[in-house]
């Protein structure tokens, strides 16, 4: 066949390329057979629907007849959505990083019909510039190489595959220690930007799991500097342009050190992880801005990313009308036309808008006349400067915000990637359940339950294994490590939010399937793909916590929590094996493993098992429960031992010895396998917990 074959694909990203003059194939046997039959190498392009530079390369090259003709003549061309097939993306991204020292999207791979790469890059312009080859130069060169120096190509491909497989071999070490946590903290301290919050200079990523590690480090060590870094970063991000002050939610990352100019796409996983970080930040500090931010993120995902059947969509694009950020930016004239004079000037002052624009465009370095609303001072300071109370200023700004929001809704919206991913929904379930528990917001917990109900009904096969992606009525693609680990995390948070034993049973069942299909019985650790998955260059184990934490890092904490809840030390031993397997990587670059460090800290302790003995819906039990969750105690499990609930006593046999006290609800606080005397009053419980 000689035409574009992406029309029937469910991925919104592949759909975006279905009209290209490039003869795209989806990833599959048909493409590889065609490459063998026609004796052509493969051009593999990996991206995602809301990726700005993917759009740029598409406009320059894939929609261009000249480039498309060159590609069709020289290659079999394959398009992959990295969010649908993270296994393919992880594999070839590792290759790109090994070959070029960096990675990113769009990811461009030239490979043999046997899926073996021999050349890698990211964004490639149509014509060469600044010493970088362009598509029109690169394609003829690769075509000639394939024709005339085939042995060289295959030799290179073999060397790359060998290097990839070597990079996959980890030798288990002694396992991380308290020293590892101290080292990570000191490295974060060195990288901390005292002026603007966050770590390093630019670009700046939110990396909420690093902040959650630092909160735990502060709690365990009492080092105030850890808390200061978290508080300053959470405040700086919330004030910056990386936060959408009009419609809520966070953009993907900031291109500058000040958190002002973002890449404007909004990802579900960022919202979920940041919601958890702000929720825990509030728990640790009582800072009202952090609760407000978590609530606003919940508003954003429930308004703009929620499917009518209860699950969450993946992302919103950075671009609208072919321009990045166009939906989100304002000129001062627009503000003055829309609002009464006093309101307009207040908004312009508070949110730092300028007539010539308040940021320089990343590409041209010029001011555009457009503005990104952001705060440079706290609301308290801004109110004091204007002789207003904080409440008065907030009320005024909120009424202005609503007008601007309504106006903005009339604009052409960025593209919505409406596929539903199991792993990212797992994170959203965990975030909503956690926030619902801590803020006592029943609505959040119900939303988390509905999202799990959708996954359970639509993305679980009859044998209990998971599927990864759902769109337009079709569930497909076998689940990967992140699907199992993140959904289990969501279920553990749901259990603590509701004390419905079925969520705990489901977490245990999923964990069993995960171990059966993904666990490395020789060296420990979870492979990213199941033992039944398609063979690429070799099975990888992910440990690095990038924008999203790795499956192994999240699984480590899940295993510890499940082990403590059930008293099954086998789970804890597996968690320890994960730490041992990656200990060398952790020692070398601990700040790249913020999520795994949380698991290490949980394992080292102190950690708590807290059993509430009582009837779920009585005011006494609820009071005791609320007291527990009002404290920031991150390394704990909480179990409800309800009279007559034999299931929980089968799952956690030790709860048989922890009954109600003289007919009253009671709490047993256990630490390092020994329990304190039960208490029935919230005040006494507060003393034990502090």
Q: Your description of this structure?
A:
49% of the residues are buried. The mean pLDDT is 95. This protein has 4 domains: 12-167, Glutaredoxin (3-Layer(aba) Sandwich), CATH 3.40.30; 178-322 and 417-532 and 543-604, Glycosyltransferase, CATH 1.50.10.10; 328-410, no CATH class; 608-689, Glutaredoxin (3-Layer(aba) Sandwich), CATH 3.40.30. Helix 25 links the parallel strand 16 (608-613) and strand 17. The chain has 690 residues and is α+β, with helices and mostly antiparallel strands. The strands form 6 sheets. Strands 1-3-2-4-5 form a 5-stranded mixed β-sheet, sandwiched between helices. A 4-stranded mixed β-sheet has the order 17-16-18-19, sandwiched between helices. It is built from 27 helices and 19 strands. The radius of gyration is 26 Å and the shape is globular. The termini are far apart.
């Amino acid at each position: 066949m000689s035409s574009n074959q992406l029309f029937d694909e469910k991925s919104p990203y592949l759909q975006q390329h279905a009209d290209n003059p490039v003869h795209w194939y989806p990833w599959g046997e048909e493409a590889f057979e065609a490459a063998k039959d026609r004796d052509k190498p493969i051009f593999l392009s990996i991206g995602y629907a809301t990726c700005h530079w993917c759009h740029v390369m598409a406009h320059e090259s894939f929609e261009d007849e000249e480039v498309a003709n060159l590609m069709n003549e020289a290659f079999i061309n394959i398009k992959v959505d990295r969010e649908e097939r993270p296994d393919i993306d992880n594999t070839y991204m590792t290759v790109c990083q090994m070959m070029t020292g960096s990675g990113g999207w769009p990811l461009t791979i030239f490979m043999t019909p046997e899926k073996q790469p021999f050349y890698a890059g990211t964004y490639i312009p149509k014509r060469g510039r600044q010493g970088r080859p362009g598509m029109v130069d690169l394609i003829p060169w690769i075509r000639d190489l394939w024709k005339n120096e085939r042995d060289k190509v295959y030799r290179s491909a073999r060397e790359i595959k060998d290097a990839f497989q070597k990079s996959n071999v980890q030798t288990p070490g002694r396992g991380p220690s308290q020293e590892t946590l101290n080292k990570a903290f000191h490295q974060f301290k060195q990288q901390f930007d005292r002026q603007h919050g966050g770590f390093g200079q630019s670009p700046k990523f939110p990396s909420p799991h690093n902040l959650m590690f630092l909160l735990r480090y502060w709690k365990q060590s009492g080092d105030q500097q850890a808390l200061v870094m978290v508080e300053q970063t959470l405040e700086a991000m919330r004030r910056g342009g990386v936060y959408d002050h009009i419609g809520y939610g966070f953009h993907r990352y900031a291109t500058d050190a000040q958190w002002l100019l973002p890449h404007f796409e909004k990802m579900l996983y960022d919202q979920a992880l940041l919601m958890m970080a702000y929720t825990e930040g509030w728990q640790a500090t009582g800072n009202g801005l952090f609760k407000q931010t978590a609530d606003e993120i919940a508003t954003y995902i429930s308004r703009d990313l929620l499917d009518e059947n209860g699950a969450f969509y993946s992302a919103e694009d950075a671009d609208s009308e072919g321009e990045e950020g166009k939906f989100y930016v304002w000129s001062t004239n627009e503000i003055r036309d829309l609002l009464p004079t006093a309101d307009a000037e207040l908004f312009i002052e508070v949110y730092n808008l300028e007539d010539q624009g308040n940021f320089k465009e990343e590409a041209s370095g010029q001011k555009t006349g457009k503005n990104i609303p952001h705060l440079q001072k706290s609301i308290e300071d801004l109110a004091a400067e204007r002789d207003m109370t904080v409440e008065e200023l907030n009320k005024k700004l909120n009424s202005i915000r609503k007008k601007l929001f309504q106006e903005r809704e009339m604009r052409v919206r960025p593209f919505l990637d409406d596929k539903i991913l199991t792993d990212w929904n797992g994170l959203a379930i965990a975030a909503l359940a956690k926030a619902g528990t801590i803020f006592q917001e029943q609505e959040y917990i119900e939303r988390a339950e509905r999202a799990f109900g959708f996954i359970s009904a639509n993305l679980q096969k009859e044998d209990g294994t998971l599927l990864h992606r759902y769109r337009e009525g079709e569930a497909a693609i076998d689940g990967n490590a992140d699907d199992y680990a993140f959904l289990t995390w969501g279920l553990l948070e749901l259990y603590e939010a509701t004390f419905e034993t079925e969520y705990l049973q489901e977490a245990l069942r999923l964990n069993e399937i995960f171990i059966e299909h993904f666990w490395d019985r020789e060296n420990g650790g979870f492979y990213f793909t199941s033992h039944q998955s398609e063979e690429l260059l070799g099975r990888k184990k992910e440990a690095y916590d990038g924008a999203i934490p790795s499956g192994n890092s999240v699984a480590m904490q899940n295993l510890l929590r499940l082990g403590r809840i059930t008293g099954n030390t086998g789970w804890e031993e597996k968690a320890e094996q994960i730490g041992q397997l990656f200990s060398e990587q952790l020692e070398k670059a601990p700040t790249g493993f913020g999520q795994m460090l949380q698991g290490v800290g949980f394992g080292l302790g102190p950690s708590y098992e807290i059993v509430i003995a009582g009837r779920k819906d009585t005011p006494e039990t609820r009071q005791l429960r609320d007291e527990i969750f009002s404290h920031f105690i991150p390394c704990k499990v909480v179990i409800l031992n309800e009279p007559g609930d034999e299931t929980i006593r089968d799952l956690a046999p030790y709860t048989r010895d922890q009954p109600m006290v003289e007919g009253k609800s009671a709490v047993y606080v256990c630490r390092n396998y020994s329990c304190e005397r039960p208490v029935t009053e919230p005040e006494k419980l507060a003393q034990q917990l502090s």
